[in-house]
Write a structure and sequence with these properties.
The chain is α+β, with helices and mostly antiparallel strands. Strands 18-15-17-16-20-21-19 form a seven-stranded antiparallel β-sheet. Strands 8-9-13-11-12 form a five-stranded antiparallel β-sheet. Strands 4-5-7-6 form a four-stranded mixed β-sheet, with no helix packed on it. Helices cover 33% and strands 19% of the residues.
């Protein structure tokens, strides 16, 4: 592959990125004097460059609050940085070993590399308050040799290393441990962003772990291939981050989740390299060390590259959408579809009524023929089909493959849907709903300024627990907010994003007004923790694809036996006896 410019493609240097907030600087929601909202730029079809008059009225209605054009919180322009805790001997040898453009002591870079994208706990604090602990220096690796040298220096001088990929995690995985007294180095991987080779015969590529999903797909598309891994964060997250969090993608039905895509990866640790020397389609060679990489969350070493599967670009891509009378009916449809052989689309997602209505509120003002069409659609749903607008749910569908595959999928999907009283919402609605996933991520930072805190969390549950879990979470959220005297009404939306033979992934979005609360971030964390416990009590998992980080590690004793955690900690001690990689995430958060 052609050698691309692998520098200046990370937060704080590439001016196209916001840095602390989510995404690209050409894209943001802006409130106008008439309380309409404009989404700037042209990056996201269907929402970019559009005036959105329905958004604020919808949010005011559903949260039972008033939103004023003047922000409730004012972002701190000059972010506060703590004093550096430098190990002078380490710094002296670092300077003599590496080029000066491979490390930074600048406060802005330190702040940028000391948080992820957890809204209340990290982004809110850095924008309006102050992060409690910062990395002391940022180091940009450019080769595996760099990694080995850096780890050697960290061992020699007892310095901590914390890997940093795209910085998109929402689990506080990049929040630095308060108890850490040693110098901390944030190790930015994004200069290692090359595709090293493409094996077209065996449909494999060797890729450096710092490449973002967006870069990876752009390069592969030029050659006629795709990996097909599309998490919501694909534009910003990295291959190494996907592996270390055991990530899932929206098109996993066709391409698999990350553990299905990666054949082998290289992990460099303080005691050496963890690698299977021959990447074959499958092998049975005792307990496989590669298992340590998935979900490692930066605790045991640094992932530098991986061999991953690729697929020829699909000949046909087609979208669709369905509207159901209610969420429960949509779930029943998904279950039957899941167990119908050979008809699963690349992606199918079912949204509940709140999320459906939120999507409608993000549409531009309907004018002319579109306004007439909208009225006809509403009349058809409510009067002809007798759908209750306050209960209906919707599916967005993405089908990929050969023309015959897609035709077969479409015919069968809509045939089954008809049995459940669904009606087609059209291909454009399906495509718009799918693409909105990427643009909607910016909404959190927009509403933060008006005193509305929101974030996402997810779980996987068996088929027979879906309605129990969603209902229990809704009830507990209302109770928690009432007990804490939260103003207005909380918002809860959820969607089924992936289906499996035995169950599904449910993705929640929660928000509430923090106006008048003394400690809004802490209140949010307490409420989210209560909801996480409800999920576990009703048979859900601790996480489906976000990982554990620090936000969820207190729940691990409910999902792993004591001996399981002991075994993992012993493995960590064998690989990293001096705890050089001391991010403190998950089961390793309590390691000595």
């Amino acid at each position: 592959m052609a050698d691309t410019d692998n520098k200046n493609k990370f937060f704080g240097v590439n001016d196209s990125l916001w840095g602390h907030k989510w995404g690209f600087k050409d894209s943001q929601f802006v409130i106008n004097d008439d309380e309409s909202v404009t989404f700037t730029g042209n990056r996201y079809q269907g929402v970019s460059g559009e005036n959105l008059p329905y958004l604020v009225p919808f949010v005011e209605s559903i949260l039972d609050i008033e939103i004023k054009t003047k922000p409730y919180f004012q972002e701190i322009e000059k972010k506060q940085a703590s004093e550096k805790n430098l190990n002078e001997a380490f710094m002296e040898e670092l300077k003599s070993t590496f080029s000066s453009d491979q490390y930074s002591l600048e406060d802005n870079e330190r702040i940028l590399h000391s948080h992820g994208q957890n809204g209340p706990d990290e982004v809110f604090k850095v924008l309006y308050n102050k992060l409690q602990k910062l990395t002391d220096i940022v180091f940009y690796i450019e080769s595996e040799e760099d990694v080995s040298k850096l780890i050697h220096l960290a061992k020699k001088y007892n310095v901590c290393l914390v890997p940093f990929g795209g910085g998109t995690n929402v689990t506080n995985a990049l929040k630095l441990p308060k108890a850490e007294k040693r110098m901390i180095v944030s190790v930015d991987t994004r200069r290692m962003n090359k595709i090293e080779s493409i094996d077209k015969e065996n449909l494999l590529v060797t890729v450096q772990a710092g490449i973002t999903g967006k870069q990876l797909e752009e390069e592969l598309h030029k050659e006629g291939y795709t990996v097909g891994h599309e998490p919501d964060s694909i534009e910003l997250s990295t291959l190494g981050g996907w592996i270390s969090t055991n990530a899932a993608g929206m098109k996993k039905n066709r391409y698999g989740n990350i553990e299905d895509i990666v054949l082998e990866a290289i992990l460099i640790t303080p005691t050496g390299v963890v690698e299977t020397l021959s990447a074959t389609p499958r092998n049975s060679t005792s307990v496989q060390p590669r298992g340590l990489l998935f979900g490692s969350e930066g605790n045991i070493g640094l992932i530098t590259k991986a061999k991953i599967k690729v697929y020829p670009l699909p000949k046909v891509q087609k979208f669709g959408s369905l509207v159901f009378p209610d969420f429960a009916t949509g779930v029943a449809f998904l279950k039957e579809l899941r167990h119908e052989e050979g008809v699963l689309p690349a992606s199918i997602r079912l949204v509940n009524n709140n999320e459906y209505r939120f999507g409608q509120a993000l549409k531009p003002e309907a004018k002319g023929l579109k306004k007439i069409e909208k009225r006809i659609q509403q009349f058809f749903l409510s009067k002809v089909k007798s759908f209750d607008i306050s209960k209906l749910a919707a599916c967005t569908i993405a089908m990929e493959g050969t023309a015959n595959e897609v035709a077969h999928q479409e015919k069968t999907i809509f045939s089954i849907a008809k049995k459940y009283g669904a009606i087609s919402g059209g291909a454009s609605a399906g495509q718009g709903g799918y693409m909105l996933t990427f643009g909607i991520a910016y909404i959190r930072d927009f509403f933060n300024q008006f005193g509305i805190l929101g974030e996402t969390f997810e779980t996987s549950v068996p088929w027979d627990r879906i309605l129990q879990v969603t209902s229990a979470v809704r009830e507990r959220l209302w109770e928690e907010c009432k007990e804490r005297q939260v103003a207005g009404t909380p918002y809860l939306a959820f969607r089924v994003t992936q289906t499996y033979h035995t169950g599904v992934c449910i993705y929640f979005t929660m928000a509430f007004s923090c106006v008048g609360l003394d400690d809004p971030e802490h209140t949010y964390h307490e409420i989210e923790s209560a909801l996480r416990q409800v999920i576990l009590d009703h048979g859900g998992s601790l996480s489906h694809h976000h990982g554990v980080g620090k936000v969820r590690k207190a729940f691990l004793s409910q999902v792993h036996s004591a001996n399981s955690m002991h075994v993992l900690r012993q493995a960590k001690h064998a690989i990293d006896p001096n705890n050089i990689f001391s991010a403190g995430n998950g089961v390793f958060g309590d390691s000595p």
